[in-house]
Amino acid sequence: MGSRVKEQRVLKTGLLGKREILLFGEVDTDTSKEVVKSLRLLGHKRKSITLWINSPGGDVTNGIAIIDSIRTIRSPVVTITIGEACSMTAFIFIVGDKRIITKNSIIMFHPISGGVNDDYISFTKDRIKGLEYIDKITNDILKKRTKLTKKEIEKARKGELWLTAEMALKKGVADSIL
């Protein structure tokens, strides 16, 4: 076994032993699989798990798999943004039972793209229905888990809503600043 692989295993084992999970980089199938697997492994106890986030976002359905895992395990999940939680990972951040953001971190919400950068009209009817369903899920999360105004939620759904740590705390997106 190479030294780098061994080092990664030692790091992962150490973090899991501390009940900590890292979500760094883009959310894709591999990242989601690792986070969900770790949540499931640790989630049977009532002892909290810390999910550290530094991510530009990523695939919506893989992000929803992480959100659903957080919601369905016994352990409370503390989410901590260190750097950025943008796009899909902003939603992962706000479903944490306790949400902490570091002083210089940022949060960004924007409309879902469904992995397509084309005009909305060019989507097929089935794709539109799927995207509308996911849009409803993310909109409901924003309404239930934040103090964002209707106007701010609309901005997050139609454009980009960037929040500093202080703004995130004020708007109920974060519970505290580290």
What does this entry show, briefly?
The protein is of the alpha/beta class. The chain has helices spanning 3-17, 29-42, 60-72, 88-94, 125-145, 150-158, 165-170; strands at residues 20-24, 49-55, 77-86, 98-101, 106-109, 161-164, 176-177. The protein has one domain (3-177): 2-enoyl-CoA Hydratase, Chain A, domain 1, CATH 3.90.226.10.
Textual characterization of the structure:
With 178 residues, this protein is an alpha/beta fold. The chain has a single domain, classed as 2-enoyl-CoA Hydratase, Chain A, domain 1, CATH 3.90.226.10. Helices cover 48% and strands 20% of the residues. The protein contains seven helices and seven strands. Strands 1, 2, 3, 4, 5, 6 and 7 form a seven-stranded mixed beta sheet that branches. Strand 2, helix 3 and strand 3 form a beta-alpha-beta unit. The longest helix is centred in the C-terminal third of the chain and has 21 residues, at 125-145. The chain is globular, with a radius of gyration of 17 Å. The mean pLDDT is 88.
